[in-house]
Specification:
Helix content is 33%, strand content 24%. It is built from 17 helices and 24 strands. A five-stranded parallel sheet has the order 4-3-5-6-7, sandwiched between helices. It has a four-stranded mixed sheet with strand order 12-13-14-15. A four-stranded antiparallel sheet has the order 16-17-18-19, with no helix packed on it. Strand 23, helix 16 and strand 24 form a beta-alpha-beta unit.
């Protein structure tokens, strides 16, 4: 371990930012287009943000939202929130106004950081339209525009930062000094089968412990350059991107939208050394016809996950893209982002066919429907227990009790097989969730929105295989008396109502949905029917 990183990793974000400024100082911490910030800059700018939040009336433990694509301002706003003692609530950039309004309202957001006109997004307009439709956020006091012109009813970031008076700065400094790893750091909203997102209570110490082990397996070191394509609102972007870079003196290179050629160009131009992401990203890079026109020799380490990955992809990541270290891992928001990970020296076959083994300090079990442990090699639900298990869901004790049993085991709903050396292979999902390009899609959420369409009487959504994205949605629609909806028109309507990764790819009208004696939809039969219709 180098002298620069021999100082222990703290258990909270305010201390982590202080440590980075002290150890890495003027080294480049963020490179975003023409903007270059040092670790000292992160501390200074996030202190200014924290003081402005204090002056805006944000008290310790109150919620601050960020609804914006990956950008340097996101890092400053997030660290500023945590240094002010606030609770960070990241909002999915693909949400429509009413989806965002639900999350912001549930978390009782006081200040929202967002953007206007950046990459064509107009989140303020989306929220205003949602409010016109009855989806209001009553606790919201200030909407601060991180980038772009501030619309009516909002304030620019420069105006907001001007609130950072000395007395507010002194108060935010006191809050930093009092920070603890036991503090609630974030509320990250994840979806559930109820059709409404649930807010996972994310504490600071477990995230830092998780992703220090992650960084060590990746071999991260000062001077590394990580291209962060994974969205900052997701644990794969915030916890696995921003966090380890600040922790180990690496440069964050935010990337707002995945595009093969722009990513390859940035790898070459900025000499990227670390690139995490779901398998679809790497498959797209490997399959790009112009790959040999770009220099990717700087790439060294990667972690991939969130979907199944063929052995051939892991091999090609090493041979075609030049990675020395390729890891896979398993986790969920409820485990502070990580529960298992491969080791740096694991062979490609083990990396490609498993999601690693339990983190230090974490226990894993594979059980049957009665909660009894299963033998090695038998599929069952994976349970997780340890420091990384969430405290619970925001204002939802019933869902918390359903997820975490009396002995502290988190019931993940994922079906896994464990081998004789403790590595797990995620084979299925107990619930109906499927993964579209790395994004979790919960059919109940999609169905809930689709039933509002006047031509839909009933609808059931399933995931079906897709070569590029892993899985895509397929919707079986029982028409209402208003008549059968036309697929293209229904798809366009869905795109206006929900994030695009939730919009089904396939639509089929049916006379009735297959039901069991309890009147629950038999989705296994729908999967068989989809396979027949798709010829798979």
């Amino acid at each position: 371990m180098s002298e620069a990183t021999s100082e222990a990793i703290p258990d909270n974000y305010p201390d982590l930012v202080d440590r980075a400024a002290r150890l890495f100082g003027d080294a480049e911490a963020i490179r975003d287009g023409e903007v270059s910030l040092s670790f000292a800059d992160i501390k200074g700018l996030s202190d200014e943000c924290a003081a402005a939040l204090v002056a805006s009336g944000v008290e310790p433990g109150e919620s601050v939202g960020i609804w914006a694509p990956n950008a340097w301002e996101w890092v400053i706003a997030s660290m500023g929130t945590l240094r002010a003692g606030g609770v960070l609530v990241p909002v999915n950039t693909r949400f429509k106004g009413r989806e965002a309004a639900y999350v912001l309202g549930k978390a009782k957001i006081k200040v929202l950081f967002t953007v206007a006109g950046f990459l064509g997004y107009d989140y303020v307009k989306d929220l205003n339209e949602a409010a016109d439709g009855g989806h209001t956020v009553d606790t919201l006091v200030d909407t601060v525009i991180l980038r772009g012109d501030a619309p009516s009813g909002t304030i620019s970031y420069s105006e907001f930062a001007g609130r950072a008076r000395p007395e507010a700065a002194a108060e935010s400094a006191r809050r930093c000094a009092a920070a603890s790893g036991e503090d609630l750091g974030l509320v990250m909203f994840t979806s559930g089968t109820t059709g409404l997102p649930k807010g996972v209570l994310v504490h600071q110490a477990p995230v830092l412990r998780n992703f220090n082990q992650y960084a060590l397996e990746l071999g991260m070191r000062p001077g590394d350059r990580m291209l962060v394509i994974n969205p900052f609102f997701h644990a794969f972007g915030f916890s696995a991107g921003i966090t380890p870079c600040i922790m180990h003196g690496a440069t964050i290179h935010p990337h707002p939208i995945f595009d093969v050629e722009s990513v390859l160009q940035r790898i070459e131009d900025e000499q990227i050394t670390i690139l995490p992401g779901p398998p679809a990203i790497f498959q797209s890079l490997i399959n790009h016809g112009g790959l040999d026109d770009y220099d990717t020799s700087s790439l060294r380490s990667s972690l991939t996950g969130a979907a199944a990955i063929p052995v051939e992809t892991v091999v090609a990541m090493r041979e075609r893209l030049g990675f020395e270290v390729v890891l896979t891992g398993y986790g969920m928001t409820e485990t502070h982002g990580l529960a298992a990970i491969c080791a740096a020296d694991d062979p490609p076959e083990l990396v490609a066919t498993t999601s690693g083994r339990a983190l230090d300090g974490v226990e894993l079990r594979i059980v049957d429907d009665e909660g009894q442990d299963l033998p090695i090699g038998q599929p069952g639900e994976i349970l997780v227990r340890g420091y990384n298990v969430m405290a619970g869901y925001l204002d939802n004790p019933e869902a918390t009790a359903e997820a975490i049993d009396a002995e502290g085991w988190l019931h993940t709903g994922d079906i896994c097989v464990m081998n004789d050396i403790g590595y797990i292979d995620v084979t299925d999902r107990k619930k109906d969730m499927f993964i579209n390009g790395g994004f979790n899609v919960y059919p109940a959420e999609v169905e809930k929105v689709m039933t509002e369409h006047p031509q839909i009487g009933q609808v059931a959504v399933i995931g079906v295989p897709d070569e590029r994205l892993g899985e895509v949605g397929a919707a079986f629609v029982v028409p209402s008396p208003a008549g059968a909806p036309e697929a293209d028109a229904l798809r366009a309507w869905c795109r206006e109502q929900m994030a695009n990764y939730r919009v089904p790819r396939h639509f089929w009208n049916v006379e009735a949905l297959p039901l069991n004696p309890s009147n629950k939809v038999l989705k296994a039969e729908l999967r068989d029917l989809a396979a027949e219709l798709l010829g798979t």
